[in-house]
Amino acid sequence: MKKHRLLLVTTFIISGCSLCYELIISAVSAYITGNAVLQYSVMIGLYMSAMGLGSFLSRYVRTELFTVFVTVEIGIGVLGGFSSVSIFLANIYIANYHIIMYAIVIEIGILVGMEIPLLTRIIEKSHSNLRMTLSAVFSFDYIGSLVGALAFPLLMVPYGGYLAAAFVCGVLNSVAALLIIWKYTDHIRYSWTYKILTVGVGTVMLLGIIFSGNISHYIEEGLYRDTVIYSEQTPYQKLVLTRHKDDIRLFIDGNLQFSSMDEYRYHEALVHIPLAQIDAIQNVLVLGGGDGLATRELLKYPNVQITVVDLDERMTAMAINHPVLRALNKDAFSNPCVTVINKDAYEFMKENKKQYDAIIIDLPDPNNEALSKLYSNVFYRLCYAALSEKGILVTQSTSPYYAAKTFWSINKTLASEGFVVYPYHLLVPTFGEWGFNMATKHALHKIHPVNKVDTQFVTPDNIDSLFVFGKDEIPSEPIAINQLLHPVIIDYYNEAVRQWH
């Protein structure tokens, strides 16, 4: 096998790229559409099926194996390199963009499916030892897949984003093709034409990497109706800050987190209503809330020590350093009473030994598995242990109108862990009707009004009405508890998204 080392190196490269394309298209699909489990399942299923079709079609290639293989590599480089850009642009300009997305994944899958059978036949033609050939080819194939699987989440997305990741793989496919052309020029018809074409494709992909930031900015201008003033792909999520006149909006992975026009309604309800129910407030834990807006409200209380736990260091850094967010949160994270810890909330609660007078849970909606566990029975069990006897917990709970099953599943899950739960809601114009679940270890004698701090929305007169729900906000069918190993809340949430889209 020594004389075929270059071909095996090529196998390693193309296998890593193949897996990356699969992950890139699945991730972009989930980013645009939501419902990550469904999108990954559909995309991977289509991709694997298309690979099977490509493998089948390779049997009809009887001659010019090197030429066909190089053609396949160039084709994959072009289709794969432009896959992210094409899907995002299709989402902006084409109503049925799914057709484009499915077509891209099928075309790439067919070509990828042809690679290994062609390489195996090329090696076997001169080596004539099928056992050794298959062993070597598949060994390099699987190792390459592992490297691709690790490189995508650890290097490509955090440091380049989806667009640059696709262009990098396009470059690598071009390199693989160029290696074959250079080594086996005599076996390739029109080799000089292929050399020029491959270099051209590789150059275009390199330019794509260099200008991926500009391309990303152009696409974001189409995805977001307002002017994008900040954009960053972190290791965990895509952060986008937009401005329209005086309205500042934060988006995480395309989902709106707040509008500066009405965020005070949300954060006053989240913070002041529960804190009005307890007398002594010394230690407060905020889970999520990386924008600093909930902490801003908490700092209205004297002598309070606040611990903020948010997974994404880049999110909290933006809240500390970006002038627009600093103005909104009033430099909350720079206050000496505030400690910011960048850690997964679930892991923090597992290791926590401290008790808090209040736990404020301000996390994104449970639209994926990573977030679902932060709305699970086990997570609330950890929160119960961390709450003082007279303490209070509150969690944002999505909309009781648009996502009623999700809201009441959160309510029921809290109750299943021993909490006495008090659901309430209000109108946040940007989001519509929005809900929260307040929970204590012991029943409250009454709901106390907010009167210790200055507010813009919450008053002693309107607080009672927030705890009243309409008939159309309470599901008639039984609602399940969201268990760690049976995350029904994702299905409830995605059902609501499908209904209202």
Question: What does this molecule look like?
Answer:
By secondary structure, this protein is α/β, with parallel strands linked by helices. Helices cover 55% and strands 15% of the residues. A seven-stranded mixed beta sheet has the order 7-6-5-8-9-11-10, with helices on both faces. A four-stranded antiparallel beta sheet has the order 1-2-3-4. Strand 5, helix 10 (293-298) and strand 6 (305-309) form a beta-alpha-beta unit. Helix 3 packs antiparallel against helix 5 and helix 5 crosses helix 6 (130-183). The mean pLDDT is 90.
Which percent band covers the strand fraction?
A: 5-15%
Which word captures the global form?
elongated
**Mean of the pLDDT scores?**
90
Number of helices: 17
Task: Give the CA-CA distance, first to last residue.
Answer: 56 Å
Low-confidence stretches: none
Q: What is the CA-atom radius of gyration, in angstroms?
A: 27 Å
**Could you spell the SSE succession in H and E letters?**
HHHHHHHHEEEEHEHEHHEHEHHEHEEH
